[in-house]
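Wed. Picked up where I left off yesterday with DUF4148 domain-containing protein. The coffee machine is broken again, so keeping this brief.
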Amino acid sequence: MTTARNALFLSLAALAIAAPAQASAVYHAAGGEIGYTQHPDHQQASSRQRSEVLGEIEAARKDGTLALLSRGIALPEPKTAPAKTRAQVQDEYLGMSDAEKRRLQEMHGAGG
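Structure written out below (tokens, as returned):
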């Protein structure tokens, strides 16, 4: 009985969390074959100006991201830090203790 009550409570909690988010969306989930209902009057007004959006589109066109997105290709991840050189990686490995080296070999395989 307790597990049924817990399941009911969790279901109601999930519904309470999802309901406000759905109320502000244009599309609402609906049962049956349709799957959704459309409510254009729920559309939130945007604070962005047309010129801002057009500027962003032009910038995306110039840097190539618009072409990638239009083909459904994922955008490359931006680099956060410069990559290490081969010498830096080798020096880092040589500076490790034997225990750290063993842990890396166990995790990644011996590697020769």
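Quick read: The radius of gyration is 26 Å.
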